[in-house]
Amino acid sequence: xxxxTSARRAEPLSRASRAGFRCGExxxxxxxxxGRCGECQAWGSVLEDAGPGGGAPRTAxxxxxxxxxxxxxxxxxxxxxxxxxxxxxxxxxLGGGLVPGAVVLLAGEPGVxxxxxxxxxxxxxxxxxxxxxxxTAATGRRVLYITGEESAGQVRLRAERIGALDxxxxxxxxxxxxxxxxxxxxxxPDLLVVDSVQTIASAAVxxxxxxxxxxxxxxxxxxxxxxxxxxxxxxxxHVTKDGSVAGxxxxxxxxxVVCQFEGERHSRLRLLRATKNRYGxxxxxxxxxxxEAGITGLTDPSGLFVSNALHHVPGTCVTVTLExxxxxxxxxxxxxxxxxxxxxxxxxxxxxxxxxxxxxAVLQRRVGARLADQDVYxxxxxxxxxxxxxxxxxxxxxxxxxxxxxxxxxGMVAVGEVGxxxxxxxxxxxxxxxxxxxxxxxxxAVVPAGSLDGGAAPAGMEILEVGDLAExxxxxxxxxxxxx
Length: 484
Hints:
There is one protein chain. With 484 residues, the protein is an alpha/beta fold. It folds into three domains: 17-55; 82-299, P-loop containing nucleotide triphosphate hydrolases (Rossmann fold, 3-Layer(aba) Sandwich), CATH 3.40.50; 303-475, Ribosomal Protein S5, domain 2. 27% of the residues lie in helices and 23% in strands. It contains eleven helices and 21 strands. It has a nine-stranded mixed β-sheet with strand order 6-5-7-8-4-9-10-11-12, sandwiched between helices. Strands 13-14-16-15 form a four-stranded mixed β-sheet. Strand 10 and strand 11 form a beta hairpin. Helix 8 (353-367) crosses helix 9. The model is unreliable at 1-18, 52-57 and 133-138 (pLDDT under 50). ATP binds at residues 108-115. Belongs to the RecA family. RadA subfamily. This is DNA repair protein RadA. Pfam families: AAA_25, Zn_ribbon_LapB. Residues 375-484 are annotated as: Lon-protease-like.
């Protein structure tokens, strides 16, 4: 009786130790299946997992070490220095270039230009390997480009169009992980590009390519090869509808660098941001111009966001936003027209609609601008998207200028956040913003009072400090009848 009872009690424990369940999003484990992850609260992401961590804990055996531990000051770091890729904007985001053995995940929406960018990077890396520092020929750097989404002929046509043909750039169209590793063993490349990680599948794992288990297996194998060979690897990743990287959340933890490639479909501007970087900063932004001839880096992208209108018209105001550490001059245009509708239109392009509604309410309540019976259309130049509160003042001044049909003074920029009480609040990086505006030829700036904090204004620039929105519209000459 006692032995039977003990066997029955031991049966559930042994069953629980044999089977485990893991969340495909965050890696949380549990001994039984649940519909919702207890860590990230994702629904339907907990699947059976018989791999490490799914069963009972095991005692690790002692293994011989391959090298003795050394004092940290004696570790050689020269082999781990970042090497430039030949694309300055990419090197800016990565922190100097690609580190040997680093794994970079580049994610972005379909059609944004990920493959075009990496094909250009691959060709420049292969070309740079043959050019010595003194102009003499150097040993060629082999670059292996694995495409799983397109045929080799399609990639070849794109490379010809953007001028990325190079004899040291090797191309293979494969979707099997074992074959990809075989190419790496045969070619022994100095750089590996995989487009994309969701299209590669391993025969040792069940499931279709792109599944949680497949992506984890493929990424783990490629990371192991990168660390073993000191070979930088760049992986292309898909994104979900909300813009996050597709696949298990652990994928972002495994790689060394995670970059987001962003851009509007109808705009040529593309922005590259690093959301995770073990070797450099995460507040740098790279700007690219995507055209039929290829993709090029923009060292001075402000010209894309400022119109070159021949006529000085009402309803336009320039502001300077910060993308990471980089200041960008952006022009905000507003058009105010009488409305024939009971509910006037509020249309935006590149501006947050809720932000516009707040600024219009402050203009009407604190300044006295009559906008309740007016249609208001607001847009940015060049397809730029402005989400920073520092653009509130330029948005308000452009709207007031269009409402009164009075153009703002020439060569003026406006930087500041508008509060609900009508006050103008200071923003970060004012000195950097004004320096960029002065470089572009602007001669006066409207800024919040006290925002310079004793710092020197750019030479030749007139600084107009304002405390509230009513004062701002007065000094700019666009005040209505109430504050004329």
